[in-house]
Protein backbone atom coordinates (compact mmCIF):
# COMPACT_ATOMS: atom_id res chain seq x y z
CA UNK A 1 0.00 0.00 0.00
CA UNK A 2 2.95 2.33 0.57
CA UNK A 3 6.72 2.52 0.64
CA UNK A 4 8.57 4.12 3.54
CA UNK A 5 12.07 4.69 4.90
CA UNK A 6 13.73 5.84 8.12
CA UNK A 7 17.33 6.84 8.78
CA UNK A 8 19.48 7.72 11.79
CA UNK A 9 23.16 8.57 11.53
CA UNK A 10 25.53 11.27 10.41
CA UNK A 11 24.01 14.40 8.90
CA UNK A 12 23.06 13.84 5.27
CA UNK A 13 21.10 15.79 2.63
CA UNK A 14 17.59 14.36 2.35
CA UNK A 15 18.23 13.76 -1.33
CA UNK A 16 21.05 11.28 -0.71
CA UNK A 17 18.49 8.93 0.81
CA UNK A 18 15.31 9.80 -1.08
CA UNK A 19 15.90 11.17 -4.59
CA UNK A 20 19.50 10.36 -5.64
CA UNK A 21 19.55 6.54 -5.31
CA UNK A 22 18.64 4.70 -8.51
CA UNK A 23 15.74 2.93 -6.80
CA UNK A 24 15.10 5.46 -4.04
CA UNK A 25 11.77 6.35 -2.48
CA UNK A 26 11.24 8.95 -5.21
CA UNK A 27 11.34 6.26 -7.92
CA UNK A 28 9.44 3.80 -5.74
CA UNK A 29 6.46 6.12 -6.04
CA UNK A 30 5.91 4.88 -9.61
CA UNK A 31 8.25 1.87 -10.00
CA UNK A 32 8.67 -0.10 -6.77
CA UNK A 33 10.59 -3.33 -7.15
CA UNK A 34 9.29 -5.33 -4.19
CA UNK A 35 5.80 -3.99 -3.50
CA UNK A 36 3.37 -6.86 -2.94
CA UNK A 37 0.13 -4.84 -2.84
CA UNK A 38 -0.64 -2.03 -5.27
CA UNK A 39 1.60 -0.75 -8.06
CA UNK A 40 1.78 3.07 -7.93
CA UNK A 41 2.19 5.23 -4.81
CA UNK A 42 0.66 8.46 -6.06
CA UNK A 43 -1.81 9.37 -3.30
CA UNK A 44 0.47 11.62 -1.27
CA UNK A 45 3.91 11.69 0.28
CA UNK A 46 5.72 13.17 3.21
CA UNK A 47 9.08 13.52 4.91
CA UNK A 48 9.88 14.42 8.49
CA UNK A 49 13.37 15.38 9.64
CA UNK A 50 15.26 16.70 12.64
CA UNK A 51 17.22 19.97 12.56
CA UNK A 52 20.41 20.27 14.58
CA UNK A 53 19.65 21.22 18.18
CA UNK A 54 15.86 20.81 17.85
CA UNK A 55 14.31 17.53 19.08
CA UNK A 56 10.92 18.27 17.46
CA UNK A 57 10.88 17.25 13.78
CA UNK A 58 9.71 19.33 10.84
CA UNK A 59 7.41 17.84 8.24
CA UNK A 60 6.73 18.43 4.55
CA UNK A 61 3.63 16.63 3.22
CA UNK A 62 1.51 16.81 0.11
CA UNK A 63 -1.64 15.06 -1.13
CA UNK A 64 -0.36 14.43 -4.66
CA UNK A 65 2.45 12.29 -6.09
CA UNK A 66 6.01 13.17 -5.13
CA UNK A 67 7.06 13.48 -8.79
CA UNK A 68 4.52 16.28 -9.32
CA UNK A 69 5.99 18.48 -6.59
CA UNK A 70 8.57 20.63 -8.39
CA UNK A 71 9.85 22.14 -5.13
CA UNK A 72 10.68 18.89 -3.38
CA UNK A 73 13.88 18.14 -5.31
CA UNK A 74 15.33 21.51 -4.27
CA UNK A 75 14.31 21.01 -0.66
CA UNK A 76 15.85 17.52 -0.61
CA UNK A 77 19.07 18.82 -2.14
CA UNK A 78 19.80 21.47 0.51
CA UNK A 79 18.17 20.24 3.75
CA UNK A 80 20.46 18.09 5.89
CA UNK A 81 19.47 15.94 8.82
CA UNK A 82 20.82 13.29 11.18
CA UNK A 83 17.46 11.46 11.11
CA UNK A 84 14.39 11.29 8.92
CA UNK A 85 11.25 9.31 8.14
CA UNK A 86 9.65 9.50 4.70
CA UNK A 87 6.80 7.74 2.88
CA UNK A 88 4.98 7.62 -0.45
CA UNK A 89 1.33 6.56 -0.28
CA UNK A 90 -1.01 4.25 -2.18
CA UNK A 91 -4.32 4.97 -0.46
CA UNK A 92 -7.05 2.40 0.12
CA UNK A 93 -9.52 5.24 -0.56
CA UNK A 94 -7.80 7.65 -2.93
CA UNK A 95 -8.07 11.28 -1.87
CA UNK A 96 -9.45 10.58 1.60
CA UNK A 97 -8.34 13.30 4.04
CA UNK A 98 -5.82 14.60 1.49
CA UNK A 99 -2.54 15.84 3.00
CA UNK A 100 -3.59 14.94 6.56
CA UNK A 101 -3.53 11.25 5.63
CA UNK A 102 0.04 11.35 4.32
CA UNK A 103 2.74 9.95 6.59
CA UNK A 104 4.69 10.70 8.61
CA UNK A 105 2.33 11.35 11.50
CA UNK A 106 3.93 13.26 14.35
CA UNK A 107 3.64 14.03 18.06
CA UNK A 108 6.36 15.60 20.16
CA UNK A 109 9.67 14.05 19.16
CA UNK A 110 8.05 11.09 17.35
CA UNK A 111 7.49 10.39 13.66
CA UNK A 112 5.40 7.39 12.51
CA UNK A 113 4.38 5.61 9.30
CA UNK A 114 2.24 2.57 8.44
CA UNK A 115 2.75 0.46 5.32
CA UNK A 116 -0.20 -1.92 5.01
CA UNK A 117 -3.93 -2.09 5.55
CA UNK A 118 -6.47 -3.24 8.13
CA UNK A 119 -9.22 -5.42 6.60
CA UNK A 120 -12.76 -4.50 7.57
CA UNK A 121 -11.77 -1.00 8.68
CA UNK A 122 -13.30 0.73 10.61
CA UNK A 123 -15.64 -1.92 12.03
CA UNK A 124 -12.91 -4.49 12.61
CA UNK A 125 -11.16 -2.22 15.13
CA UNK A 126 -14.28 -0.90 16.87
CA UNK A 127 -13.49 -3.01 19.94
CA UNK A 128 -10.19 -1.16 20.39
CA UNK A 129 -11.65 2.33 20.61
CA UNK A 130 -12.33 1.88 24.32
CA UNK A 131 -8.61 1.77 25.03
CA UNK A 132 -8.16 5.35 23.80
CA UNK A 133 -9.18 8.58 25.55
CA UNK A 134 -12.04 10.30 23.74
CA UNK A 135 -9.80 13.30 23.08
CA UNK A 136 -7.34 11.09 21.19
CA UNK A 137 -10.09 9.76 18.94
CA UNK A 138 -11.53 13.22 18.30
CA UNK A 139 -8.12 14.67 17.46
CA UNK A 140 -7.02 11.99 14.99
CA UNK A 141 -5.28 13.69 12.10
CA UNK A 142 -7.08 11.59 9.48
CA UNK A 143 -9.98 9.13 9.35
CA UNK A 144 -8.10 6.08 8.19
CA UNK A 145 -6.63 2.89 9.58
CA UNK A 146 -3.08 4.27 9.69
CA UNK A 147 -4.08 7.24 11.83
CA UNK A 148 -5.92 4.94 14.23
CA UNK A 149 -2.96 2.57 14.53
CA UNK A 150 -0.79 5.62 15.24
CA UNK A 151 -3.22 6.70 17.98
CA UNK A 152 -2.85 3.27 19.61
CA UNK A 153 0.96 3.44 19.47
CA UNK A 154 1.01 7.02 20.74
CA UNK A 155 -1.25 6.23 23.69
CA UNK A 156 1.22 3.57 24.78
CA UNK A 157 4.19 5.89 24.36
CA UNK A 158 2.48 8.54 26.47
CA UNK A 159 1.78 5.90 29.12
CA UNK A 160 5.53 5.26 29.41
CA UNK A 161 6.09 2.28 27.11
CA UNK A 162 9.31 2.10 25.14
CA UNK A 163 9.04 2.39 21.37
CA UNK A 164 9.60 -1.35 20.99
CA UNK A 165 6.96 -2.28 23.55
CA UNK A 166 4.41 0.17 22.12
CA UNK A 167 4.90 -1.08 18.57
CA UNK A 168 4.89 -4.79 19.42
CA UNK A 169 1.79 -4.58 21.62
CA UNK A 170 -0.09 -2.49 19.06
CA UNK A 171 0.67 -4.88 16.20
CA UNK A 172 -0.46 -7.91 18.21
CA UNK A 173 -3.61 -6.12 19.39
CA UNK A 174 -4.62 -4.97 15.90
CA UNK A 175 -3.73 -8.33 14.31
CA UNK A 176 -5.91 -10.13 16.85
CA UNK A 177 -8.87 -7.83 16.15
CA UNK A 178 -8.39 -7.85 12.38
CA UNK A 179 -6.77 -11.11 11.18
CA UNK A 180 -5.00 -10.59 7.89
CA UNK A 181 -3.98 -7.03 8.72
CA UNK A 182 -0.70 -5.90 7.18
CA UNK A 183 1.19 -3.89 9.78
CA UNK A 184 4.64 -2.78 8.69
CA UNK A 185 5.18 0.15 11.05
CA UNK A 186 8.04 2.66 11.32
CA UNK A 187 8.75 4.88 14.35
CA UNK A 188 11.64 7.21 15.16
CA UNK A 189 12.47 9.82 17.78
CA UNK A 190 15.51 11.07 15.90
CA UNK A 191 17.89 8.85 17.84
CA UNK A 192 16.62 5.34 17.11
CA UNK A 193 14.29 3.47 14.75
CA UNK A 194 11.68 0.90 15.69
CA UNK A 195 9.94 -1.08 12.96
CA UNK A 196 7.75 -4.13 12.44
CA UNK A 197 7.66 -6.56 9.54
CA UNK A 198 4.11 -7.93 9.46
CA UNK A 199 2.74 -8.82 6.05
CA UNK A 200 5.04 -6.89 3.72
CA UNK A 201 8.71 -6.47 2.88
CA UNK A 202 11.22 -4.73 5.16
CA UNK A 203 15.00 -4.32 4.82
CA UNK A 204 17.81 -2.59 6.67
CA UNK A 205 21.27 -1.33 5.77
CA UNK A 206 23.73 -0.74 8.60
CA UNK A 207 26.83 1.23 7.63
CA UNK A 208 29.33 1.40 10.53
CA UNK A 209 30.40 4.96 11.22
CA UNK A 210 27.68 6.36 8.98
CA UNK A 211 24.23 5.24 10.10
CA UNK A 212 21.32 2.83 9.66
CA UNK A 213 18.55 2.82 7.07
CA UNK A 214 15.32 0.83 7.47
CA UNK A 215 13.10 0.69 4.38
CA UNK A 216 10.31 -1.16 2.63
CA UNK A 217 12.80 -2.11 -0.04
CA UNK A 218 16.47 -1.40 -0.88
CA UNK A 219 17.15 1.85 -2.72
CA UNK A 220 20.16 0.34 -4.51
CA UNK A 221 21.83 -3.02 -5.12
CA UNK A 222 24.33 -2.83 -2.25
CA UNK A 223 24.79 -6.46 -1.09
CA UNK A 224 24.84 -5.34 2.56
CA UNK A 225 21.07 -4.86 2.60
CA UNK A 226 19.47 -7.43 4.92
CA UNK A 227 15.84 -8.59 4.67
CA UNK A 228 13.86 -8.66 7.92
CA UNK A 229 11.86 -11.87 8.41
CA UNK A 230 8.09 -11.54 8.57
CA UNK A 231 6.59 -11.30 12.10
CA UNK A 232 9.65 -9.46 13.43
CA UNK A 233 10.29 -6.38 15.56
CA UNK A 234 13.36 -4.33 14.59
CA UNK A 235 15.11 -1.89 16.91
CA UNK A 236 17.98 0.09 15.39
CA UNK A 237 20.41 2.80 16.41
CA UNK A 238 23.26 4.38 14.48
CA UNK A 239 25.51 1.53 15.57
CA UNK A 240 23.47 -1.68 15.68
CA UNK A 241 20.26 -3.48 14.77
CA UNK A 242 18.33 -5.92 16.97
CA UNK A 243 15.68 -8.30 15.56
CA UNK A 244 13.08 -9.95 17.81
CA UNK A 245 10.43 -12.43 16.60
CA UNK A 246 6.78 -11.49 17.15
CA UNK A 247 4.33 -14.24 18.04
CA UNK A 248 1.10 -14.64 16.12
CA UNK A 249 -1.80 -13.50 18.36
CA UNK A 250 -4.37 -16.01 19.56
CA UNK A 251 -7.57 -15.49 17.62
CA UNK A 252 -9.76 -16.64 20.52
CA UNK A 253 -8.80 -13.46 22.41
CA UNK A 254 -9.58 -11.13 19.54
CA UNK A 255 -12.83 -9.98 21.08
CA UNK A 256 -11.13 -8.79 24.22
CA UNK A 257 -7.44 -8.18 23.56
CA UNK A 258 -5.25 -7.47 26.53
CA UNK A 259 -2.06 -5.49 26.78
CA UNK A 260 1.03 -7.35 27.90
CA UNK A 261 3.31 -5.59 30.31
CA UNK A 262 6.88 -5.22 29.19
CA UNK A 263 9.97 -5.23 31.35
Question: Can you describe what's shown?
Answer:
This protein is of the alpha+beta class and 263 residues long. It has one domain (2-253): Glutamine Phosphoribosylpyrophosphate, subunit 1, domain 1. It has six helices and 13 strands. It has helices at 14-18, 25-28, 72-78, 134-138, 145-158, 163-177, and strands at 2-13, 45-49, 58-62, 80-89, 105-107, 110-117, 182-188, 193-197, 203-207, 211-215, 226-227, 232-236, 241-245. It has a seven-stranded antiparallel sheet. Helix 5 (145-158) crosses helix 6. The relative contact order is 0.18.
Properties at a glance:
263 residues; alpha+beta; Glutamine Phosphoribosylpyrophosphate, subunit 1, domain 1; 7-stranded antiparallel sheet; 6-stranded antiparallel sheet; 29% strand
Amino acid sequence: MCRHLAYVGAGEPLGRLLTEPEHGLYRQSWAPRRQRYGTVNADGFGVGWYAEGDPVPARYRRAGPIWADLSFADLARVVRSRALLAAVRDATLAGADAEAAAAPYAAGTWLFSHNGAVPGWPGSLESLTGSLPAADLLSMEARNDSAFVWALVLARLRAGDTGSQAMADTVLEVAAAAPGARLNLLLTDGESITATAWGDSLFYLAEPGRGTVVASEPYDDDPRWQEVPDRTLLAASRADVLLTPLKEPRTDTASAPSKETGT
